[in-house]
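Read as amino acids, tokens; as here:

___
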Amino acid sequence: MKTIKDILYFLSLPLIILLIMAFKGLADDKKLENIKHTNPDKSFAVVELFTSEGCWSCPPADELIAKLQKGNQNKKLFILAFHVDYWDHQGWKDQFSKSIYTGRQKQYATWMSLSTLYTPQLVINGKTEMIGSETAKVLSGIQSAMLESHPENLSIKAARTSGKTIQVSYSTTSTAKSTSILVALVQKQASSQVAAGENAGKNLSHVQIVRELQQRELKAHDSFSFKLPENNDAWEIIAFEQNQKSGEIIDAAGIDL
């Protein structure tokens, strides 16, 4: 019989997940011992959090993905935090919010036949959604995604062309129909001192903040250009292939800048 340590190794899940589960009392030994994973190298989880600095219930979800980011040693966990703009009228303008991110969340509502938008919402591999602060459901969803096997067809490269301009190129062997390639410029970490709204007086820390998202029809290869903001923060590029009829993400890749 496999031990919990053995199973977590084969799942390639970060150690932090086990620590969180133990702290919250969520570990289920029998469930873990029955998990089998025959192809860990071809699994991944794209985790999208829809959040806002204007939402009082969002900080716990931000903290959860920060723990996941800290323990992400296998690089198969791709975390994207989209700051939506529909909370900005509550007295505080989220500096990271964009209407395009609200539009992306609306698209998920259509794909998943949801009647409303809410924060914090978390979506895994474009297929399942849950409240982003519900630790047990989030970890279970990531674990389920890591049990699936996908063809590895996407690769990306990034190079600085001039100044703060980054050229990102990708290649893929995928021939999937109705599929788009999405490429995100991600700021690894930032913080804000919130002066008004539901989180007034709080200093909020954020990770994996999507600062720009570009989308095109999937081709065998293509390139994108991004302009880095004028700071010395750490950045990451995350690219993924997504079916535009169902929302399912079929492959993903990332690279640190």
Remarks:
- The chain has one domain: 4-256.
